Structure formats: C-alpha cells, structure tokens
Amino acid sequence: TPDELPTTGPAAAPAAEAAPAKGPWKVSPEVDDTFTTLHGFLSQELDFTPDEGEERRRAELLYELGHLEEVVFGDGGRARERYELAAGTDATFVPALRALGRHYRKERRWRQVVEVLDAELKTSSTEEQRAALAVQIGALLWHRLEDGEGAVASLEQAQQLSPRARRSLELLRLIYSRQHDWEPLFGVLGRLCNISADDGERARLTVELAELAEVRLGRPQEAEELYAHALELDPANQKAALALRRLYLHHERWQQL
Q1: Shortest CA distance to 96 belongs to which of 111, 108, 86, 106?
Q2: Terminus of the chain with fewer CB atoms < 10 Å: N or C?
C-alpha cells in the first residue's frame, strides 16, 4: 500500500528505532534513577560542548537525549524537538534524520519526510543507497503529495543511479500511464523489457509497446514489428498472434497469414 512504500530499503530506520516503546518503560525505581542520572550527565555534557567545531558531538548528544526522552520517559514531542535540533546541528547525522522521518510519518507530515530523506540521500556513500532513497522520495511525492513532476524527477534520478532497479521503473510506468503521457511510457516499457530475463514477460511488455505504438502514438509499422517480435519471444502469445492476423487482414497481406 502507499503507506508502506516509503518505509522500505536502506533508508528505513533500524528495527529498534522503527518501533520504540509507547510511553515510559515500566522499570524499577533504581533503574529509573539510573536513566535520570544518565539524562543529567548527557545534558551537562551538551551544555559544555561548544556550538562551533563540535557539531557532530552536539548532534550525538541531542539524539541520545531525544532517544531517552522518547523510549524511557515517553515524551515523544520533546524527543522530536531534540532530533530536529540534532539534524539542524549536523545535517549529515543519519540517526537523527531517520528518527525524524519516523516521527514525521506518524504525524503524516509527508513534506518533512521528503526533506529528511533528501538530506540522507545527500550523505549516502553508495549509488545503491542513493537510488533506494530517491525511489522512496518519488513514491511519497506521487502517493502523498500529488506531485507528479517531482516524483518523475526523483524516479529518473534513481534510474540514473541504478538503471536495472525495477521499482523506479514500475512507479514511472504507473505515473506516465495515469497521466496519459504515452511517449515517456513507451520508453519506460522498453527499459523494463531490456532488464527482464524472462522471455514470457518480455513478450508481454513488447505487446504493450506495440499497442501503444499502434493506438496512442500512430506508428502502425513499428507496432507490427513489435507484435512480430513478441511472437518470436513467445510463440504462444495469443495477443501478439491475433494482432498480427488483424493487421495482415486489414492490409490484405494474405501470404503472411
């Protein structure tokens, strides 16, 4: 479902972070005192850590304080404020970005989710990670923010980073189809066909290409060639066989029937 789309891939928060305890932990007074003391020590260190030159350490302390406030003391609002301060202090500190993304999703603040995913994308070290994050951004822009143009830009970015990634192509296919944007859809179907290793699937995609060429793009000769290629890929493909028969009858090409 669209709710689930943005929470997959390497940008998703670790398991412990994805499902924090709801409300304060039920702990003994001794343990509670320990957490309270730890919170005090962290707060004191934060007070003595300079704003300039120690940005990463300040971000770490803010994040640790927020995590305690959320998981142990059950103060999600205060925790989110800490995470926001941590991300503002060091925009490359991924744990704070992921914690913020989790809070924003719960609050259905989709634009802010996109912003933190984009910040994480800029810090990611591998093309695979950046591609997965770009797909998440594209899915949110399309499903949650109704921003087709932005979604396409993010998904095409994912394709540039990882050309064989199916998820970005499938989303582009959906968007171009819904928008009746036939020429880009033709290109996406061609790319899906190129990365498929299954002749049956390639035949089905080639039939879709042929139907687009014939019905939407006004290229009957190209459509005929694509139907024929689909039949070469899968001689049992009935749609390709029937379409070719129809075209041959229409053009009175009896020898090819």
Answers
A1: 86
A2: N
65-81: per-residue pLDDT in tens? 999 999 999 999 999 99
Q: Are 163 and 194 in contact (CB under 8 A)?
A: no
Rounded to whole angstroms, the Cα distance separating 83 from 66 reads 6
- Per the CB < 8 A criterion, the answer to whether 96 and 69 are in contact is no
Q: pLDDT tens digits for 217-238?
A: 999 999 999 999 999 999 999 9
Distance (Å, whole) CA 231 – CA 157? 34
Structure tokens at 36: 């309270």
Provide the token pair at 125: 């070290």
d(CA 40, CA 88): 22
CB 234 within 8 A of CB 203: yes
pLDDT of residue 8: 38
Q: Read out DSSP for 156-220?
A: HHHHHH-TT-HHHHHHHHHHHHHTT-HHHHHHHHHHHHHH---HHHHHHHHHHHHHIIIIIS--H
